Amino acid sequence: MSRKEFSEYTGIPVRTLEDWEAGRRTPPEYIPRLITYQIKFEKRSGRNVSVIQDAEGNKIVVINDIVFKGRRSIQWEDVEKYVKQYVGDIFSIAEDNEIIYIGSELPSEYAGSVYTKKLKGATAKAKANAAQVIPEMIEMATNGIFEENHKSKHGRDAKYGWYRYDTRFALPVYGNDGNIERYNIFRGRLLIRHASSGKKYLYDIVEIKKETGKSCQT
Predict the structure, then answer these.
(1) How many C-beta atoms lie closer than 10 Å to residue 174's C-beta?
(2) Per-residue pLDDT tens over the stretch 132-178
(3) pTM of the model
(4) Number of H helices, E strands in the chain
(5) 3-state SS assignment for residue 207
(6) What 8-state DSSP symbol labels residue 167?
(7) Which candidate, 69, 68, 63, 70, places its Cα nearest to that of 47?
(8) Residue 168: how many other CB atoms lie within 10 Å
(9) Cβ contacts of residue 190 below 8 Å, gap of 6+?
(10) Three-state SS string across 97-126, please?
């Protein structure tokens, strides 16, 4: 954006922006945070997703538009760039009110972990597109299970162990006419590390599997 466009977008006078840029004045510490929140909120609200319940009352986050459509293979570098938008965000799991942070390691782990590199076909496509609904998958996660950390390389970043939570999402299946015919339902597990700082960070989403025989209409 130009300075004028940024002024119109944020409501901050052009003269004030000029003073900040020139170092004549310093913005209050909360102003950059609010601007960042505004941009991220608008980006998030523009996604075509929804949350529904199945017959048992369990939540499913539905992705209504596939972003990563590669027919042969997923361009994971593009997925990594997409996930970077969440770095610094904080979410809460509704079931137990646990606060989950998004750290700088998530994009590379999500797109390049040993688990991800083994994915093929529909499962790889499912994980790539699940990147669109990371906020919802955290918020609706259930059945948290704790496990001790047994790897020395995670002695600091997972000092207090790991947590796994169940989550579910659905992807559209398109007919020959290009219209959505149904949605395939997938389940996965959030892998969360409990760092030495006491904070809990989303580390990856693993164990992604299609729920055999299950699809839904919305």
Answers:
(1) 12
(2) 999 999 999 999 999 999 988 898 899 999 999 999 999 998 888 87
(3) 0.77
(4) 8, 8
(5) strand
(6) E
(7) 63
(8) 20
(9) 137, 138, 141, 163, 164, 165, 167, 202, 205
(10) CCEEECCCCHHHHHHHCHHHHCCCHHHHHH
